[in-house]
């Protein structure tokens, strides 16, 4: 394996507000705009309660990532934590689940954009619009994450303006009694409400992915966890207000599995409704898509440097972008659009896979606290090894319940496909990557573009 790691060519230029823009862009997007209608169909007005609880469950599930990012900020965070702390087989399982989940998530965000665009320009097919916007943001991210972060800042202003219009015009027309009716809150029973919580976990969990940008963030050990917590709770408050309007203006049977434009048409003047669609609906899905493309390649980049994947696949351009890997995700994202997959299936499948990856990260935190407490003490969050273990176990329990409930709503073919991915990844590591040794570099900072020396390495051992 080459001694020069491609990740050393990444540029550390993302400050606190750059990270906040990416995190908010990742959180506010396809989740609220495309999942809310699906959630109403599952649990009625319980969607409001689900959004109220979601940030707390999200913090429980992503806190392990925040702790790890604070103690050992690094490029491709979760993959590196899993591969260094749990072994290369577990790291490769994470890698394959990540690639499948978020490669298809790119399709979800693009198609959500396309459906809202189709609502104001009916002549343009939603799948065609999705392919165009995916291509546009693929091109934008080819010239660097700093450009992507700047674009997200600009789009976020339009996004929050549009969402503000939806809330201001809609709240006065909400029937609170209808929303809080117990029969409406748990329309299909407690079991389906748990499934709704699982579905919406993806709507508030976007901040965790800035952990992938540890090699490009300024003061990452401090800024990454702060951004995760602040953005999650801030956006959570906004989501509850949006859910109130979405579920409390029209009868559930009318808005179930429908985009928010249906409610917007009933609460806003037509001109304002168009501003909402352009600013909020299109802006939200666009910022999420753009933010995703800025971090999605990082785990694979590290895997290329590790030798798990071909080293040449991780080549980084002069703009600090692993353009071959970005192109790979672009092509994976195009497949469901070309095949015209249903957005409801895409959303559930993506979320289910994402929850599995979080379980592995919780296990990595437990391993860090149990065996390498000296690294944990580096964390700016000042957490003891015992508390870290407890949070890791709590996260595993919560995520297992949520993932199980969501997998129950998928077809058997989808479940078999995920199981096959796990088996394939284990076989791959046991054969093609059998001789690969993962470096013990958990706390090595490659951002200086210098080869690490033996004295700077982590006490974690490669497997």
Report on the structure:
With 463 residues, the protein is mostly helical. The chain is 71% helix and 0% strand. The chain has helices at 16-27, 30-43, 46-71, 77-85, 88-120, 126-141, 145-170, 176-180, 182-185, 189-204, 220-248, 252-255, 261-267, 270-295, 298-306, 323-338, 343-371, 373-376, 385-407, 412-430. The two termini are 15 Å apart.
Write down the oligomeric state: single chain
Helix content: over 70%
Main sheet makeup: none
Residues in β-strands, percent: under 5%
Shape: globular
The termini sit apart by 15 Å
Structural Rg = 21 Å
Unreliable spans are 448-463
Q: How many strands?
A: 0
- Which class of secondary structure composition applies to the elements? mainly alpha
Describe this protein with a few key phrases.
463 residues, single chain, disordered C terminus, mainly alpha
In summary, what is this structure?
With 463 residues, the chain is mainly α.
Write the layout of secondary structure elements.
Elements: H1 16-27, H2 30-43, H3 46-71, H4 77-85, H5 88-120, H6 126-141, H7 145-170, H8 176-180, H9 182-185, H10 189-204, H11 220-248, H12 252-255, H13 261-267, H14 270-295, H15 298-306, H16 323-338, H17 343-371, H18 373-376, H19 385-407, H20 412-430
Helix pairs in contact: 1-7, 1-11, 1-14, 2-10, 2-11, 2-14, 3-10, 3-11, 3-17, 3-19, 4-5, 4-15, 4-17, 5-6, 5-14, 5-16, 5-17, 5-20, 6-14, 6-16, 7-11, 7-14, 10-17, 10-19, 13-14, 17-19
């Amino acid at each position: 394996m080459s001694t020069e790691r491609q990740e050393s060519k990444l540029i550390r230029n993302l400050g606190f507000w750059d990270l906040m823009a990416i995190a908010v862009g990742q959180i506010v997007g396809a989740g609220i705009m495309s999942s809310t209608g699906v959630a109403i169909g599952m649990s009625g007005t319980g969607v409001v309660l689900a959004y109220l609880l979601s940030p707390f469950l999200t913090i429980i599930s992503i806190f392990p990532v925040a702790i790890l990012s604070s103690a050992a900020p690094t490029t491709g965070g979760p993959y590196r934590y899993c591969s260094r702390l749990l072994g290369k087989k577990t790291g490769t399982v994470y890698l394959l689940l990540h690639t499948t989940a978020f490669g298809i998530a790119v399709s979800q965000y693009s198609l959500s954009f396309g459906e809202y665009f189709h609502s104001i320009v009916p002549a343009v097919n939603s799948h065609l619009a999705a392919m165009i916007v995916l291509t546009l943001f693929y091109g934008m991210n080819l010239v660097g994450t700093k450009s992507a972060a700047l674009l997200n800042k600009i789009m976020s202003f339009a996004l929050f303006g549009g969402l503000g219009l939806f809330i201001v015009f809609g709240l006065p027309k909400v029937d609170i009694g209808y929303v809080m009716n117990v029969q409406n809150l748990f329309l299909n029973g407690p079991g389906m409400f748990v499934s709704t919580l699982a579905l919406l976990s993806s709507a508030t969990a976007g901040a965790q992915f800035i952990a992938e940008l540890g090699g490009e963030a300024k003061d990452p050990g401090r800024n990454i966890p702060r951004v995760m917590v602040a953005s999650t709770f801030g956006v959570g408050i906004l989501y509850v207000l949006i859910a109130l309007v979405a579920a409390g203006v029209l009868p559930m049977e009318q808005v179930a599995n429908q985009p928010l434009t249906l409610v917007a048409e009933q609460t806003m003047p037509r001109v304002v409704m168009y501003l909402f669609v352009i600013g909020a609906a299109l802006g939200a899905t666009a910022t999420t898509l753009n933010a995703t493309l800025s971090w999605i390649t990082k785990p694979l980049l590290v895997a290329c440097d590790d030798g798990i994947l071909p080293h040449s696949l991780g080549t980084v351009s002069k703009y600090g972008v692993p353009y071959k890997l970005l192109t790979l995700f672009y092509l994976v994202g195009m497949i469901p659009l070309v095949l015209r997959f249903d957005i409801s299936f895409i959303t559930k499948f993506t979320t289910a896979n994402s929850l599995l990856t979080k379980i592995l990260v919780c296990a990595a935190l437990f391993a860090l606290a149990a065996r390498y407490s000296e690294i944990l003490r580096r964390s700016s969050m000042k957490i003891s090894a015992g508390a870290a273990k407890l949070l890791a176990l709590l996260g595993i329990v919560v995520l297992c319940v949520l993932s199980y409930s969501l997998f129950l709503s998928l077809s058997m073919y989808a479940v078999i496909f995920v199981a096959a991915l796990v088996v394939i990844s284990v076989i791959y590591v046991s054969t093609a990557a059998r001789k690969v040794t993962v470096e013990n570099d958990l706390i090595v900072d490659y951002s200086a573009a210098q080869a690490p020396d033996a004295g700077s390495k982590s006490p974690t051992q490669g497997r």
